[in-house]
C-alpha cells in the first residue's frame, strides 16, 4: 500500500520554506517520526509522519515553499511491529540470555542509548556534536520524543562530581557551570526565542572555542591606493547593478597569501599527527542577516578575478538576506573572512571555523598619519585580525602570512599578477 504524506494543518502558517529533510529514500520510519522541518518567521516546525512504513520517494527539496496539503513523500506499507532504525543509525541487537553488561560511565556516549532514544536524525546529530547520551535525556515532545530543547536543558543541568577535585561540582567537560539567576527579581524580563541560525551555530562555535587553542595576530595594511582603484571600479559597477567592495580585494589577496603559506589553508588530520594540504581555495565570508550570521562560500576563488568575485559576493549576500542559501552554498570553505568594516571597531578575535585552521577579521579602515621617512602623511589604514589554530600555525607563520596580506593590499598591481 502506497501512502501520500502531505503537509498537515500547521495553523496560520502558509508558504513556509523547508529547511531540513530528515529522512531519505529507503528509510524505514515509525508513525510520528519527524520527516521535515519547516521554518516560519515565528518558529521552526517539525512535521511528523502520519503512518509507519518505508520511504520510497521524496517529492520536495530543501528550500522549497510549502503549505497545508503540499505533497512531502511517498510511503510504502504499514508497519505494526517495532520499526528498525535507518541504516545510518546503529542497530540495537536483542538482549541475549546472559548477565547484563556493566553500565557505561556517565561520560560515555553509547550507540545503545542512541538506538533506544525517540528522536529525529537532526536531534541525534546535535546530541552527538555535544557528546550527550540520549539515553539520559528526558523527552518533552509527543510520545516522549526528545527535542533539541531537551538536550540544551540536559546540558545546562548536568553536573559531574569529581573525586580529584574534592567533590566540587562541575559542568560538562569539567567546566564550572554558570549559575542560574532569576532576573525577574530585579525588573521586568521576557524570554525571547533565539533565531534558528544562532541555535545551530552556537554549539559549533562553542565546540571550536573549546577544542582549538586560539591566538590572534593583529596587523594594519595601507589601502590608500587600492581604495582609490576600488572606487573607480565601483563607479562602473553601479551602472551594471553590482558593487565592488574592499572584501573583493581581500578575498583575492587572501588567496595569493594562502598559496605562499599553504598551512593556513589546511586542516588538521583526524589522527592529530598530520596536516591535510588542500590544492583548492574556497573562501567563506560572514554575511549579516536578520536572523544572524551565515557563511556563504566563494568556490575556486583562485580562478576568479575582482569583477567575478564582486558579483558572486553580491549574489550570495542577497541569497543570505532572503534566506535562500542552500547547503552547498555554505560548505567546503578552506579559509573564512569576517568583516565588520561597515560597522566599526579597531580589532577583534574571530572564532576559527573548524575544521579550518584560520579566520581573518576586518574592522573599519581609518585615515592615520604615517611616517614616510621624511614626514607624516595621511594614509588609509585597514586593521587585520587573524585568529589561528596554534596546533597548525605558529606565531612566526601567522606574522608572515599577515605581512604578505599587508604587502599585497598595499600595492594593487600585485593582486593582478
Helix content: 25-40%
What is the CATH topology of the largest domain? Chloramphenicol Acetyltransferase
**Strand element count:** 21
Low-confidence stretches at least 5 residues in length (pLDDT < 50)?
79-114, 159-171
What distance separates the N and C termini? 64 Å
Q: What's the helix count?
A: 9
List keywords for this structure.
single chain, 417 residues, alpha+beta, OB fold (Dihydrolipoamide Acetyltransferase, E2P), Chloramphenicol Acetyltransferase, 2 domains, 7-stranded mixed beta sheet, 4-stranded antiparallel beta sheet, 9 helices, 26% helix, 23% strand, globular
Give an overview in words.
By secondary structure, the chain is of the alpha+beta class. The strands form 6 sheets. Strands 11, 14, 17, 18, 19, 20 and 21 form a 7-stranded mixed sheet that branches. The chain has a 4-stranded antiparallel sheet with strand order 1-8-6-3, with no helix packed on it. The longest helix has 16 residues, at 196-211. It is built from 9 helices and 21 strands. Helices cover 26% and strands 23% of the residues. It has helices spanning 111-116, 121-129, 148-157, 196-211, 224-239, 246-260, 306-321, 395-410, 412-415, and strands at 2-6, 16-21, 28-29, 34-39, 44-48, 53-58, 65-66, 71-76, 160-161, 169-170, 214-222, 267-268, 275-276, 283-285, 287-289, 292-294, 297-298, 335-339, 358-362, 366-371, 376-389.
Amino acid at each position: 500500500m502506497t501512502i501520500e504524506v502531505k503537509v498537515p494543518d500547521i495553523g496560520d502558517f502558509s508558504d513556509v520554506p523547508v529547511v531540513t529533510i530528515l529522512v531519505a529514500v529507503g528509510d524505514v520510519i515509525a508513525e510520528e517520526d519527524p520527516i521535515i522541518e519547516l521554518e516560519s518567521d515565528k518558529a521552526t516546525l517539525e512535521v511528523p509522519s502520519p503512518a509507519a512504513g518505508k520511504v520510497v520517494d521524496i517529492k520536495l527539496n530543501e528550500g522549497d515553499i510549502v503549505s497545508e496539503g503540499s505533497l512531502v513523500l511517498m510511503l510504502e506499507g504499514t508497519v505494526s511491529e517495532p520499526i528498525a532504525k535507518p541504516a545510518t543509525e546503529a542497530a540495537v541487537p536483542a538482549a541475549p540470555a546472559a548477565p547484563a553488561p556493566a553500565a557505561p560511565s556517565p561520560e560515555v556516549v553509547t550507540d545503545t542509548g542512541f538506538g533506544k532514544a525517540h528522536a529525529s536524525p537532526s536531534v541525534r546529530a546535535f546530541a552527538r556534536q555535544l557528546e550527550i547520551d540520549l539515553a539520559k535525556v528526558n523527552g518533552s515532545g509527543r510520545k516522549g520524543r526528545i527535542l533539541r530543547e531537551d538536550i540544551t536543558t540536559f546540558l545546562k543541568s548536568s553536573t559531574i562530581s569529581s573525586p580529584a577535585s574534592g567533590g566540587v561540582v562541575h559542568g560538562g567537560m569539567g567546566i564550572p557551570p554558570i549559575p542560574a539567576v532569576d532576573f525577574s527579581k530585579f525588573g521586568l524580563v521576557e524570554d525571547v526565542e533565539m533565531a534558528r541560525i544562532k541555535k545551530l551555530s552556537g554549539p559549533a562555535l562553542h565546540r571550536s572555542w573549546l577544542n582549538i587553542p586560539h591566538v590572534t595576530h593583529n596587523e594594519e595594511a595601507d589601502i590608500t591606493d587600492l581604495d582609490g582603484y576600488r572606487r573607480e571600479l565601483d563607479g562602473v559597477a553601479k551602472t551594471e547593478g553590482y558593487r565592488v567592495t574592499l572584501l573583493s580585494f581581500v578575498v583575492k589577496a587572501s588567496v595569493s597569501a594562502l598559496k605562499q603559506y599553504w598551512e593556513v589553508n589546511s586542516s588538521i588530520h583526524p589522527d592529530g599527527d598530520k596536516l591535510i594540504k588542500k590544492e583548492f581555495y574556497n573562501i567563506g565570508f560572514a554575511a549579516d542577516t536578520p536572523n544572524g550570521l551565515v557563511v556563504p562560500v566563494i568556490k575556486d576563488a583562485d580562478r576568479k578575478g575582482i569583477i567575478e568575485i564582486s558579483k558572486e559576493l553580491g549574489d550570495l549576500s542577497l541569497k543570505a538576506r532572503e534566506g535562500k542559501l542552500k547547503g552547498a552554498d555554505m560548505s567546503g570553505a578552506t579559509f573564512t573572512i569576517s568583516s565588520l568594516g561597515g560597522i566599526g571597531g579597531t580589532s577583534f578575535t574571530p572564532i576559527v571555523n573548524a575544521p579550518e585552521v584560520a579566520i581573518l577579521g576586518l574592522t573599519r579602515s581609518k585615515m592615520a598619519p604615517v611616517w614616510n621617512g621624511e614626514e607624516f602623511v595621511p594614509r588609509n589604514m585597514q586593521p587585520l585580525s587573524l585568529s589561528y589554530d596554534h596546533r597548525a600555525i605558529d606565531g612566526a607563520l601567522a606574522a608572515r602570512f599577515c605581512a604578505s596580506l599587508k604587502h599585497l593590499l598595499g600595492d594593487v598591481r600585485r593582486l593582478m599578477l
